[in-house]
């Protein structure tokens, strides 16, 4: 599967969106609704304009819906905050389904690496590996792990936190950079 670089106007708005979101998430541990809603509206409007009406609208809504659905599942499992869900939905609205999937994959890799670094720096590697095993065993039983272990709930002060908005920003920038590299 190849990924195309979105048009320049969308890239500029997307970059502004993710940088502001990352800054807010790092400083305040939240991503404001006005920012994500603006991203959704701008993405839908720009794609509708740039891709001749219905085609652009469908592209944008497919990205929005797919991103929202994937991250909403993570939110329901208490592995992601609501701001992260809305940020990914806004990114999906801007870049469409195909490019969003690329951003999602790179963000997952960046997030995994960042999580390992944070866990190692905090000296919690063994505890984290135990938690991963616990999560998998609870999944086999069809139970959410956060119910029995509150440190597995992203909303808990006992959880090892990582500003996922910043991870999303890095993943998106890596995606855009790789698109530039492979197109050039």
Give a description of the structure:
This protein has 184 residues and is mainly α. The chain has one domain. The protein is 75% helix and 0% strand. The chain contains six helices and no strands. It is elongated, with a radius of gyration of 17 Å. The two termini are 17 Å apart. The model has no long low-confidence stretch (mean pLDDT 92).
Note the topology.
Layout: H1 8-28, H2 33-50, H3 54-76, H4 82-121, H5 125-140, H6 164-183
Give a short overview.
By secondary structure, this protein is an all-alpha fold. It has helices spanning 8-28, 33-50, 54-76, 82-121, 125-140, 164-183.
Major sheet details = none
Identify the overall geometry.
elongated
Provide the domain count. Answer: 1
Give the N-terminus to C-terminus distance in angstroms.
Answer: 17 Å
Structural class: mainly alpha
